[in-house]
Amino acid sequence: MQYIDKEYLRKWIPERKPDAHKGDFGKILFFAGSTGMAGAAALSGRAALRSGAGLVRFLLPSLSDPIYPILQVLVPEATCITPEQIPDYNEYDAIAVGSGLGEGQERIGILEQILKNYEGKLLLDADALNSIAKETISRDTFESSKAELVITPHVGEAKRLLGGNEQIRTPEERLNAVRELSNRFCAVTVLKGNGTLICTPEGEVLENTTGNPGMATAGSGDVLSGIITALSGQGIPSFPAAACGVFLHGKAGDIAADKLGQISLNAGDLVNSLPDAFMEVV
To answer: Which pTM was predicted?
Structure first.
């Protein structure tokens, strides 16, 4: 088993040139959040901005959607748009779908359009994965996607994607599961948990060494999605972007836990600790 360390990150995190502009650091789209779950989208967007994304946008079914004003307040640096304002999804360097998305038909329909039309780096998390497991989205739509996929399941989501009967507890079971998911879905897979595993479709696996139990809190996965998507949008290939994102996410958690303790740690603290994590690592 190979492990992610600071030297690995330093090979991949790009230096910023003096004449750089926001277009050099990725145009990112989040399709996330729903009524009662606006915070999931906000955490992802804030994490992406703290991870160097040049431009962040939220995709909403319409600007009359209830979460529109919430996102404008919680993430003022980002903009909100509708599908009608996107002539081509491929104008985005990376897209993330699923955090707090819910399973309403209108949102599922937009997810299907992204899967059918986008050919770039696409991260699927949370309700996007649940829609695939439940086949709310047809298997044909998913399997015919030309996107470069990253999936980020926790153990419960991994079980659902694999059929629901697998045991994923021991290190060996986790290793088998992440390889099976990567192979079955032809995706870079991030199997979250203690010693998060990152696997390529070919079966190469890296294990993370940062993080602590205080990160087992609502919204932590949304922050991770934002970090990985931001790094992908800056031109880092999907596998190292996922590995670097997991390491930085855990490092931010360790920094936050040192300041606040594990019990009091929440997802917003992870976002707030990302600048220190980047400075320590890069």
So the answer is: 0.98
